[in-house]
Structures are given as structure tokens and as C-alpha cells.
Amino acid sequence: MKTLRSNSFRTSSIRYEGPGAAQALAFRHYNHAEVIDGKTMKQHMRFSIAYWHAFRGAGSDPFGPGTISRRWEKGSDPVSIAKARMDAAFEFFQKIQAPFWCFHDRDIAPEGRSLAESNRNLDQLIAHAKAHQKASGVKLLWGTANLFSNPRYMCGAATNPDAHAFAYAAAQVKKALEVTKELGGENYVFWGGREGYETLLNTNLKREQDHLARFMHMALDYAKSIGFKGQFLIEPKPKEPTKHQYDFDVASGIAFLRTYGLEKHFKFNIETNHATLAGHTFQHEIEVAASAGMLGSIDANAGDLLLGWDTDQFNTDIRELTLAMISILKAGGLGTGGFNFDAKLRRPSIDAEDLFHAHIGGMDAYALAFKLARRILADGKFEAFVTERYSSFDTGYGKDIEKGRVGFRELNKLVLTKLGEPKPRSGKQEYLENLLMSYLHG
């Protein structure tokens, strides 16, 4: 591991010490060099650090200003401060052994008084990031544009009723695509935080969705023209900051993509907390995306079920993560995606060391869940149960149903003359829950 100019953290590099580790600042389950099925754990997990939470989050909430102050936030002007911040970020990426990072354009570079000035600021920070990536080996999992913070986007970006705002957003995404390509980003994400409405009294819903689709097609066309070959991802969320967002969940996202001829070009970046806000489980959203061949990447966090908003906490729920990992592995993995820690420290967690504790917990939890899921799938008990449960569709009239060889008339005759009343069969949920528990606590 190469030494960086920054010396912002007193904590040394985090090492794997196994389940019996005596110190808190050590991995217990994530051994990045461990080889499983011919790949290292680093290659399997593809962990990424979210720049906005880890290095822009200040602990603020709707009821009070930030509580977190970092000693590296110093410089003679906004750009020099941003460079010092990035120095600290790449030091952290290496010390926590994360192979990837993610950013919004306005996370890494200050917004200027004009788009031209913002672009110049971004160019300076992209050059700085490029040098850091080369020195450290850390790669860009995905980039994106912040189309939700500035007041110009208070009514949306691609869905804004003002064509001027639409055009500005297009120019911003154009630049974001260029710099993502320059940094070797493997994906590009669209999160439509303002792409929705507060009231239908002032909204032409169809026209806004048409505009959103046109925006996506423009992005695809431009990406192709500059040779950007990364995967495009949509990140669903049902609400917050707007009351209703068009990318409500994966299912509505699939419907949108298919309606507008975009389904071959996009996959989904699924966030745990967004899934629960939509009334789903994390595993449900993964399964819906996987069933359509659109599982792309994961924003690794969790919400607090006692609170009704997006709390973006680090996820250490082994049961939830194991179920998610089962579905991810059955789908063949995430391809160019990864597990991005879109999670923030709690408001009272103000020490720089807390960043390490948080990410260690998240990385260990996902690594343990990965190993448990592999064991569960290798044993095949759940898969065998499900296969047997649907076995009546494997032969005879059941197979004819799936193959489209029978209709209502044939099935009606079959029931009246031969089958009669179906005999209910137990789904054995309690048995399966106990079986899962035996893996989690065995």
C-alpha cells in the first residue's frame, strides 16, 4: 500500500484478525485476500465508499446544524479545501481496504457562480482524483450528477416544468458523464430525488414522465458518442424529498423503462433503506430486479423501522443481509456493480475514528452474509424445497400450462372429469425459518 501525502487519520490500516480479534479496529470476517472459488474476497465484494456521506456528511438533520468537524477541512479557497478533503478521502479508502469509491459531481468540487466555473472547479478535482487513483489503485465504481440540491431543481431536473432547468440539468449530466469516463467509472447512476411531484394540482404527470424518458435517451446517445461503455443504473426511491417520485421501486422502474424503450440499457442500483420506504424488503427488490435481468449494484445501508424517513444507517443485520446475498448469488452476482456504503455516521458520532468503526461493521456484516449464503446455497436445502413445491408444473398438465399448450377449456374439462378439488399443501414457513436460524446461529 502506497503512502499518500495526507496524514489525516491517526488510525493505521485496518487488518483482518479473524472472529476472535481482540481490538475493535480490525476485520473479523472480511479478509480481502481470502480466495473463494478462484476469486479474492476483494473481487467478490467490490466494496465502495460513498464520498457524500463519508466526507461531506457533517451530522446535520432537519432539526439542527452539523456536529462533525474534520481537521482536514482547511484551505485558502473552496477548491484547495476540496483537494485537502480528497487527500483525506483516499487515505481512508486505502486504510479501510476499499477497492472503489462513488461520488456526485458537487460532492467533490464546489459549485461556482456559473456552469462554466463549476466545470472548471470539477476539472481540477478530477485531475486530483485521477492522480490519487493511479497512486492507490482505488477505482471509481460509479459517478453521478447532483440534480436535487440546488434551488434550480426544486421542481425537478428532467421533469422540471421549465425547459431552462431541463437544459441546465442536461449540461450538468453531460459533464458528469465525461468525468466519470475520464476516471474509468464502471457505472453511471441516476437518482431522481426531485423527479416527482408534491401535488397533482400543478402537475402534468404524463408530460413529465415523457420528458424524463427523453432525458435518459439523450444521456444514452451522448454516452455512446464519447465512448463511455459503463453500465447505466437507476436508483429507485418512493418519496423524500418529493412526496411521490416516479422511480418508486424496482417494479415501477421496470415498467417505465419498458414503456419508453430503455430496458436494454439500464439496470438498478438497489438501496436497502429505499426498499423499506417503498414497503418492500431488501431481498424483494433484489429478486424483482434479478427476475428481469436488471440487477446492477447495491447501495449498502439500512433504515430504522421505528422512523419514517431515510436514515441511511450502516447495516449489520446478518439475517437481512444473508437473505439478500442468497438472491444476489443466485442471480450470478452484480457484474460491474458493487456494494457501496451509502450510509452515514449518527449525529453524535463525531470522531474520525468512528468512520472506521462504521465501515468495519458494514464490511464484516456483508462478508459474513456472503459466506453464510454460499453455504446455504451449497447445501441446497431451501432450493430443493422450493423445487419440490413447484414440481407439479414440471410434468403433465402443469408443464402444458407453462408451455402455453392448454387453455381454460382444457383445464375446465380436466378438473371436472379427473382432478376434482385440490388438496392444500403446507408452505412450512416455520420449518424454513428454523432452518435459516440454524445457519445463522449454528
General description of the model:
This protein is of the alpha/beta class. The protein is built from 16 helices and 12 strands. The strands form 3 sheets. It has an 8-stranded parallel beta barrel, surrounded by 4 helices. The protein has a two-stranded antiparallel ribbon with strand order 1-2. A two-stranded antiparallel sheet has the order 7-9. Helix 6 runs parallel beside helix 7 and helix 10 packs parallel to helix 11. It is globular and about 85 Å long.
Relative helix content:
40-55%
Provide mean pLDDT, rounded: 96
Shape: globular
Strands of the largest sheet, in order across it?
3-4-5-6-8-10-11-12
**Strands, count:** 12
Radius of gyration: 24 Å
What portion of residues belong to β-strands?
5-15%
- Can you count the helices? 16
End-to-end distance: 37 Å
Low-confidence blocks of residues: none
Order of helices and strands: EEHEHHEHHEHEEHEEHEHHEHEHHHHH
Q: Specify the biggest β-sheet.
A: 8 strands, parallel, barrel
Q: Which structural class should the secondary elements be placed in?
A: alpha/beta
Keywords:
alpha/beta, 8-stranded parallel barrel, globular
SSE arrangement:
Blueprint lengths: L34 E2 L2 E2 H5 L1 E4 H6 L21 H18 L4 E5 H4 L6 H22 L2 E6 L18 H20 L4 E4 L5 E2 L7 H22 L4 E4 L9 E2 L4 H10 L6 E6 H6 L4 H10 L3 E5 L18 H13 L8 E3 L10 H28 L1 H9 L6 H8 L4 H12 L9 H12 L2
Parallel strand pairs: 3-4, 3-12, 4-5, 5-6, 6-8, 8-10, 10-11, 11-12
Antiparallel strand pairs: 1-2, 7-9
Helix pairs in contact: 3-5, 5-6, 6-7, 10-11, 11-12
